[in-house]
User: Fold these one by one.
Assistant:
Number 1:
Amino acid sequence: MSALTLQRQNDQSTAHAQAEHAAEVAQYLSFQLGGETFAMGILNIREILEYEYLTEVPLMPDFIRGVMNLRGAVVPVIDLALRFNRPRTELGRRSCVVIVEVDDPETETQQLIGILVDAVHEVLAISEQEIEAPPQFGSKLRTDFIAGMARVDNRFIVLLNVPKVLSVEEITLLASLREHPEGGGPGELPVVGDAAQ
Amino acid sequence: MSIEAGLQAFIDEARELLQQMEAILLDAETAQADAEVMNALFRTVHTIKGSAGLFALDAVVAFTHEVENVLDQVRGGTLALSDTLASVLLRCHDHLEAMIAALGRGGQMPDEAAGAALLSELHAHAALSPSQAARTAPAQTAPATADPEQHDWLLYLGLSGDLLHHGIDPAALLRYLASQIRIVQVLPLPQNWHGTGGFDPEHNYLHFALHLQGNTSREQLLDVFEFAREGSCILACPVAEASPYLQAIAAETPPDMLAAASTAWQQLGWSPQVQAAPRQEEPEASGTPVAAENGPATVKKSKPAEKSGESHFLRVEAEKLDTLINLIGELVIAGAAGNLLAKQAGSSSLLEWSQGISNLIEQIRTGALSMRMVQVGEIFNRFPRVVRDVAKELGKQIELKISGADAELDKSMVEKLGDPLMHIVRNAIDHGIEPAEVRLARGKPAQGTVQLNAYHESGSIVIEVSDDGGGLNRHRILQKAVDRGLISADAQLAEQEIYALIFEPGFSTAEQITNISGRGVGMDVVRRSIEQLRGMITIESELEVGTVFRIRLPLTLAIIDGFMVKVAESVFVVPLEAVVECVELPPEMHPDDSSNCLNLRNELLPLLRLATFFDLKPSTSDKRNVVVLQIGDRKVGLVVDVLLGEFQTVIKPLGDLFRSLKAIGGSTILGNGQVALILDVNELVQYVVMRESARYGLEKDRDPQLAALPGK
C-alpha cells in the first residue's frame, strides 16, 4: 500500500521537475528497516541482491553480519538496524542486500559494502524543495547519519547520509576497540559512546 | 606515440641501460674486462645520450657527452679503467640516475654544480681538459685499433627526404664526421629534383658519397649517423672490401641505392672487380619500389653485438597480469563448484568431464602464477654495489658471494624484500664483519665475506644472508635487553629467543652509531616486513665465526595450501605449513570449561578453543579434534569440531573494514560459493596471549570503567 502512495508522489515530482528545475531532482531508493522507511541516493548503489548465505566474521562488532561472495569478491554486509542501535534484522522472504560503493578517504579507494534491509521498495525522484534539513533532535537516529528529511505524501522519510553511516574509518575504529579491549584509553571512550548511542 | 609516452619509454630504457652500466663497472673492478665489455659500456652511455637528444634534454646530453668521451678513450685502450676511474664513473652513473629519476617524477633536476664537479674529476682522471676531450679522444683511439688494410673507407649516405623535418642537419653530421676522421672527398648527389620549380626547402634532396681516410670501423661510422638512420640507407665499407660488401647486402638493400652507391663510389676512384653482382640483383629486386624504408635493415644487421644480450621477453603491465590471475582464481572456484555439482549428480561421464576441466584449470593456474615469478637475482643484483659502497665507507674489505640467484618467487614479494635484505646486509657489514686487524688476530683472512644465498625448500623459498664476522654476542644482547627493561635480569631465554631480541624496536648493541647502522631502527622494520609477507626470520650465530640470517617465505602471496576445519557452522582455513599433526580430543576434555592444556606424548600443549574464543554458536557434534600448530618454536593446539582436509586456496583480501582484525589473515571462496576465513595463526596466538594478560591485568589494577569496555 505504501508503495502505491510513494509511486504517486514519485510521478508528481517527476512532472514537477520537468516543468521547472530538472537538475535539482535526485533519485533515491526507499527501503524498509524495522517498521520504518528510509531512502538513500541511488548514485552509490551498485546492485541489489536477494539475501544469501553469509559467513560470520568473529571478533567484529555485531552490526557486521558477515561477508558474502559477490561473484568472487568478498564483500562485508552490515545490519543497518544494529548500526542504528535497533533490534537485529530478522531474515525474511523479502530480505535484501543492497551493495553500495563507499569511498575510503584513508586509502583513497572504493569499497563495496552490503547493507542488509528488510525489503526494498522503489526508486523515488525527489526534488530539492521537498527535502528539509535534518532535525536537531527527536529523530531517534544520530543526526549526522541523516542527510535530510524528504516530504513524501505528507510523511517524512529519512534520507541517509551514506558516507557517514558506512564510514570505513569509524567502523574500523569500533572494530579495533573491540579487538583491543585494553587499548582504548579514557580519551577514546566518548567516541564509543557516541557511535553506539 | 605521444611525447609523454615516448619520454616514459626513454626513462625506462635509460634505467635499464644504467643498470647495465653499473653491472659492467662493478664487474670491471674485479676482473679485467675485455674490449667487448668496454664497447658495451660505451654504448650504454652513448644510447642514453642519443635518446636524450631526441627529447631535447640538454642537461642529460651535455653530461653524458663528457662521460662518453672518457669511455671512448677507455674503449680505445688509451685509458685504463682503474679502480679510481671506475669509482668516479659509478658516481657519474648515480648522477645520471638522479637526473633520470627527476625526469620521471617531473621534479627538479639534481644540482648542476655536482654534475660539473663530477665531470672535472672525471677529466682529471682522463688527464684531459673538457674542450680537448672531444677532439683528442678519437685521435688517440686510432693507433690502438690500427689496421692498415682498412685505411681507406667508402661511405654512401642515402639520406631520407624527411631528414630536415626530423631536425637533423646533414651538414652538421658531416662536420662531426670530419672531426672524427679525415674526409678525402665528398660527392653530393642531388636526388629527385630537376631544377624546375616546386622546391621544398624543408625537403632533403641530397645524397652523399664520401671517401674517408683513417682508422675506424663500420660501427663507428654508422654511429655518427645513428639519428639519421630512419628512412635512410647508409652504407659504409673499406675500399678493399667494397665489392663483397655490396654483394652481401644486396638482398636487403633497395637496388636503386645499391646502384647509386656503386656508381658514386666509382666516381670516387673505386674500381669494382666484381661489378656484376649488384646488377644481377637489380631486375629481380626492382619490383620493390618502397626503397627508403628498407634502408635501416642494412644498418641494423651490421651491429649484431648490440642486441645479443637481449632475451625474448615480453613486457606486460603488472596490472593486466594481476587481473588475469584474479580471473583464474575465479575459474578455480567455479571449476570446484562444477566438480561438486557433478559429484552430486552422480553421473560418471559428467564427473569425468569436470575432472578434465579441473586438470586444465590447474595447469592454467600454475602457468599464470609462474608468469608472476621472477628470479631472486633481481634483488640480489643491487647488492654488489651496496656492499662495495658500504665497505669503502667503512674501510673494510668485503667480498660478496651470490648463489641461487635463479630461485624464483612472486614479483610482488621481490619488491617488498629489497629493503629488509638491504638492512640485514648493511648490518652484516657494519656490525658483523670485524675490522681487518681483529680478523687477522682471530686467524681469519683480512677480507670478510658476505654471502647471499637462495634456495627452495618444501614449497617455500629460503633466503640466507651470512657473514664470517664476529657473530652475535649473546651476553651483550641480554645485558642490553635487561638495561632497556625488555626482560627481567633473571630471565632464562632460549638461544633463538635471545637472538629475537635484536628485532625489538630501538635495540642496538653497537657501541658506535655510524651512518650505516647502529641506530637501532631497522631490525624491527625487517621483522615486520618479513612477517607481512607471511615469512619467518631466524638467526644462527656463533661467536667469532659468523652469523646467518635465514628468511623463509611462501612462494606467492596469492595462493596458500590450507587445511580446512569446521567449528560449529563456520569453516576456517589454517595455513598448512603451520599444521604439525591432528589428534582427537579426549571426551573428558570436551566441555569448554575443562582444562586448557593437553598432554601430548608427555609434552604440554596449550589448547585454544576456537568456538569459545570466537563466540561461535555451541557445537552439536560429539567429537572434537585438536590441530597441533607449530608457531615459531612453540606448539599450540587448536580445538575444532571437524577436520575437512587439505585444500589449495586462493587468498582474497577481506578489505579495509577488517584491517584491525589481525587474527584473520584473509578469506577464500569454497567450491559451494561460501566464504571461508583464513586464520593467521601467528597473530591469533599473539592476540590470545594479549587478551589473557589484559584480562588478568584488568581485574587487578584497571578501573571499572575501562573494564566495562565492549568486547571484554
Number 2:
Amino acid sequence: MSGPSRRGRERAQLGFLLGPVSAFLTIFLGGPLAIMLIYSFLAPGLYGGVEWQFYPHNFGRILGFADPEFEDFDPVYLAIFLRSVRIAATVVIITLLVCYPAAFQISRLSEKRKSFALFLITLPFFASLIVRLFIWVLILKKTGFVNLTLQTLGIVDEPLELIYTEGAVILGMVYIFIPFMFLPVYASVEKLDWTLVRASQDLGASGFQTFCRVIFPLTLPGVIGGSIIVFIPSLGNFVVPAVLGGAKTLMLGNLIEQQFLAARNWPFGAALAMLVMSIVLLLLFIYVRHETRRGDDAPGIR
Amino acid sequence: MAESIVRLEKARKAFPLPEGGTVTALDGIELEVARNEFLTLLGPSGCGKTTLLHAISGFVELDAGRIFVDGDDVTERPPHKRPVNTVFQNYALFPHMTVGSNVGYALDISGTPRMERDSRVGEALEMVGLGGLQNRLPRQLSGGQQQRVALARAIIARPKLLLLDEPLSALDRKLRQAMQIELKTLQAELGISFIFVTHDQEEALTMSNRVAVLDGGAIQQIDTPRAVYNNPANEFVASFIGASNLFRGAVKGNTVVTAGGDVIQVSVDTTSMNQVTALLRPEQYAIANGERDASAAYMDVTVRQIVFTGAGYELHGETASGHTVVATIAAAQQTQVANAETSRRATLSYDPAAVHLIPASGGKP
Amino acid sequence: MNFVHKLGSLSLIVYVFIFFAFIYLPIALIVIYSFNADPVNMMRWSGFTIDWYRQIFGFRNASSEAALYIESTDQLLAAVRTSLIVAASTTAVATVLGTAAALAVFRYSFFGKRFYRVLLFVPMLMPDIVLGIALLIFFVGVGISLGVGTIIIGQCTFLISYVFIVVSARLAGMDRTLENASADLGADEWTTFRKITLPQVMPGVVGGALLAFIISMDDLVITYFISGTSTQTLPIFIFGMLRRGIKPEVNAIATMMLLFSFAIAALGLYLNRRKR
C-alpha cells in the first residue's frame, strides 16, 4: 500500500480500462482519418484507384487551381460548396427562430408539463431519420398530401413544385434538426435568472431593451452551442438532399458520395471530405476557445 | 495497552497548487487523543483540520510523520483497514440502499452473521432514535434523520475512534443545538473517543473535553474549552474564539501602555514580560457609576453605537487614541446605557485581575 | 399594458401548440395513411385496410392489385435481421468500451486526460459522411471485405462516444464521498466498486446502451458507405426503396419502425427517471 505499489496498481487498472478502447479507436478511427488525409493528396487513377504521387490539385479543383493538364478551373464545385454553406446557415437560422420562443414558453410551464414537453421534443430524435424524411416525401410530392389538399379545395389547378427544391431540402433539415437546436437553447433559457429580467425592467428598460441587453446575452451560450450542433451535420448532409432535393440542390455530401460510388475519383472525394472536416474543426476550435475564455472571465454565469 | 487512542507524530502534508508551488496543510502536527475523549479540531477554513481528519481516516497520505491508533502504526494502511469510522459532512449515505442496508454496510462487509447483523442494526437505529425506519430510502428522510443514519452507520462496527467532519453544519440552528447535546450523550454512552471537526467556536466550546485550535497547518493551542477561552496562547486564538478587545503595548509596572497612549491596568506578575498583548473580553466590562472603586480600573470611551441584543446591550466605543472597544453591558444597567447614549461618552470599568496577558512572541502579527 | 401582456403570452401558448403540431402531425399522417387502401396513390384516401401490414409479414393479400407492389418480403426480413445483429453487437462492444473509458477518465488522473476527453467527443461531432468515407477507404485499403463485420466496427467508432458521454454524465453526478464512506466502513476497492460505484452508474450504462442500440438501428450514412453490395440494414433497405420509387407498404414499415424506436426511447426515459 505504500507509494509505488499503489501507483503501480492504479497504472494497471488504468491500462485495463483504457487500453482496449484506445487501441480500437487508434486503429479504426485514427487509421481511417489518416488514410483519408493521405488520399486527398494523391492523384486519381485512370480507372478508379489512386496513383501514389503528391497531387495538390484535388483541392485545386475546388478552390481554383485545377490540374492544368486535364481541365480548366470549373467553379461548379465552389458553387456547390457555397450552396452547402448557405443552406446550412439558413437551416441554423430557421431552427433558431422556431426553437427560441418555444424554449421560452416551455421553460415557464409547471414542472410536470415541462418534463412532458421535453419528452415530446426528445422523442423524434430516437425515431428513424429515413422514416421522418420519407414522411416529407409523401407530403410534398406532386401527388402528395399538400398538393392533393390544395387541389381538392380548389386553390390550385396544377400541382405545385414542392419537392426536389432547395426549400424542401431546408424544410427537411429543419424538421430533423429541431431537437438539436432546442435542447441547448432550452438549457440556457431554463437557467436564466428571472429576477435579472425584473431588475432590468425595474431600472427602466423596455421589454425589447431587456431582451437585447439581458435575456439574449445570457442565453447566447445555448444559441451558439445549438447553432454549431445544427450547422455541422447540415453542411455535410447527403441524405436529405438525396431524398428531398433534385439536381439543382446538390450539396457537398452528394458530391462526395458521387465521387466514391459513381465517379470513382476517391482522392477528389477525400479532398472534399477534408474540406468539410476542416470547417467543422475550425468551428469547434473557435467554440471551445470561446467557451474556456468565457468560463474564466465570468465563473458566475453558467 | 497504550495510554492514548490516537497519536500523531510530526505529521506533515503539503498539497500542490494548480498555479504551482504548494500549500502546507499539516505542518509537523503532534497530537494525542485520550481514551473516551471528545476532542474538537477548531479553525478557519483552510487551516488543515479536514486534512488532519483525513490523515487519520486514511484518505490523505502523509508526506512525513506517523499515525498510531491504539498503539498500532496505521500510517501505511488503506482506509478500509483502519479501526476508525467517519461521519461525513454531507452524510454520504448510499442513495440506492435502504436505511437498514446503509447502517448494516460495515457488518455486511465483515461478514457478520445475519441474525447478529439485524439485531445490531436495530440497536444502532434505536440508539439514534430512528427505530423502525430500516426500510426507508435515505432521500425519504429529513436532514436531521439522515444525520442520525450516518451516525448509526459509523458507530455500528464499534470503531475505536469516531471522526466527525462538520456533521452539523447543514442543520438549522435549533436542530444543531439539540444534536450537540445528543452527540455528547452518545459519546459518553459508547465510551469511544470522538474527534470532531468544526469551524463553529460555540459548538467547540459546548461539546468538547479539549479543543485544538488550528491555523496554518499547526496547532495553536490545545486545552480545555475554559482554558482556551480564558487563557488563549496567542492573539490568533484570542481573536478566533469569542469576541475580544486586544491592546498591544509595552509593560510599565502594573500597566500596559499602547503605542497610542491607552493604559490598561493589570494585576498579574509582569516582571518577566516586556512587549505584550492585553486581552479584555466584552463581558468583562461594565459602565462605571461615577463613584470609583480602588480595586477596579477604568477606561473612558467615546460611544459610537449601542445595540440592544435582548439579553443586554453591546456598546461600541473608541478610546482617546481611537482604539475600538466592544463591551457587553448587562440589561440591569439600562440607566447608565441611556446616559451613555445621550452624552455619547462612557466610562467603562473592568477588573485588572481579569485582564489576560499574551506575551508578544507567542502571537502572530 | 396588462391586456397586451396577456395577448403576448396567449400567442406564445398558441405558438407552442403549432410547434408540437409541426413535429407530430407528419408522424400522425404517416400512421393514418399506412391504413389507406389506395394502391396507386398512397395519399389519396380510399378506404381502410391492414393489407400492407399483412404483406410485410408475408401473408397473401385478398386484393391481387396490391400483390403487384410486393417488394421481396425476404429482403425486408433479411434487412431487419441484419439490423438487429449489427445493433446487438455494436451495443455490446460500444457499451463495454465506452463505460470503461468513462470510468478511467472519472477515476484516475493521467497525462493527457483532458485531451483524451476531447478526443472522445470528436467521432460524435464529425459529419457522418466524413467518417463513412474514411472508413470505406480504410477497409478497402487494408483489404477487409465489406459486410456485417465492417458495419459493426464502423458504427462502434462513434457509438463509443455516445456511451462515454452518457456514462460520464452519470458519474459526474455521483458523490465521490460515497466511495470514501464505503472504504471508511471497511470495504476494499473491489467491494466498493461492486456495491457502491456500479449500482450508481448502472442507469447511465443502461441508458447509454439503449441510445447506442437506437442509433445503430437508425444509422444510414456511415453504414451506407461500408456495408458493401450484398448487405442491407433496414434504413438502407428503405433508402433504396425511396430511390427506386415508393411502394405503399413502406408506410406500414415506417409506422412499425416509428413505434419500435418510440417504445425503446420511452423505456429508456422511464428507467432513467425511476432510478434517480
